[in-house]
Amino acid sequence: MVTIKQEDFISSVADAFQYISYYHPVDYIKALHEAYLREESPAAKDAMAQILINSRMAAEGHRPICQDTGICIAFVRVGMEVRFEGPMTPEQMVNEGVRRAYTDVNNPLRGSMLTDPDGARKNTTDNTPGVTHIEIVPGDKVDVIVAAKGGGSENKSKFAMLLPSDSIVDWVLSMVPTMGADWCPPGLLSLGIGGSPEKAMLMAKWGMMEPFNMHQLQARGASNRAEELRLEIFEKVNALGIGAQGLGGLSTVLDVKVSDYPTHAASKPVALLPNCAATRHTHFTLDGNGPAVLTPPSLEDWPKLALDFKSSRRVNVDTLNKAEIATWKSGETLLLSGKILTGRDAAHKRFTDMIAKGETLPVDFTNRFIYYVGPVNAVREEVVGPAGPTTSSRMDRFTETMLAKTGLIGMIGKSERGVTGLEAIKKHRAVYCIAVGGAAYLVSKAIRGARVVAFADLGMEAIHEFEVVDMPVTVAVDSNGNSVHKTGPAEWRAKIGKIPVVVA
Asked: In which band, very low, low, confident or very high, does the pLDDT at 347 lie, cut at 50, 70 and 90?
């Protein structure tokens, strides 16, 4: 028998979640850099450059890659010849490790977990509980995989109970466009096929932890049905032209994983899970000889890139009006300077409730921009922690009221807007810009001042006023309602030419 000390397990989990908050897996960095070198779309190439630069900065500064530091997932395989020293169960130990990691004073991570998910939705503040899966296996070791999964990619998970004769490839190709850019491509798609519904989902989640090795598979060719599917789905999803951040381009996915399991004769359960540009996971083993040792990657594993904003328009947001924003065009890059307000779902709900009651809002939005962000708490000399954009379509239901009643003229977020959001933007001659999802630490360096101005009780969802200098954004929807998330993918799908472009 091998004895694993409780403290060794807990400290290893805590160290692992800290580790993945600022270190990408090196295989992902290499795969993304290869895609960057191949990319022909200027907008997509710039987005990938920002992701790579942000990743290196996070590794150097030991600060989060993404502001959404994720829901904590742990896969724990316990050998049958292992005993734990201490009263806590493996699940309890994982949660204690999560608590320590997310409250670390040197690198505090954002607590995103809410209790009473359909009621009060109260933040637990320390990101507990995690989601722990435990398996008993032969051996005298404990193998642990930890992953941090952000809401953007988790929310785009798909599941279907297909008919036995249905095409999985066709189903995937029908699903991926509906996912938009909320999951921050380019990343990874993982499929679980077979078993039961929950087995399919679990296999897909497991598959995300496998190395990026698509180029090796392409070189040697498929040896089984799962590998055939990987190759076909990889080629056809990229042929959709969605591209990095949904801007249109050659690379939407960097790899595809397929796991399968026997299933009922009448069934074909299929789960599809994406992993975003903030791919964060690691593996360690405990054998009774102390806590895990996690070896940092070398900074030489990251490419040395520099951003080029020579052609970008510089904008003073403090003097903006509708006449000026009417000159901006969809796809144009801007460098914003001045003061912007922040606000996410909870704040928008509170704003619209106050408006409905005829109450005065605590901040004046006249001719101002709002940034959809929930930043990580600052440490040391920081003005604010990593502060990347959140998914903007969640704010669509509030956009008409905000634009009609507050004087707001511009919004900054991540990925595409839905139909109601687009209609409101066009109607009120407003604009919507995007910052790069997966570049939170880089974006935060443009923020030179930050203060809470309203709704302090909402924590990271409070209303902040940011003072920014040369904050890079792209005009995603101009005042005429033209959306780069519609025109970009259509353009590149046509250029790639493998899948017919349907014109509505």
From this structure: very high
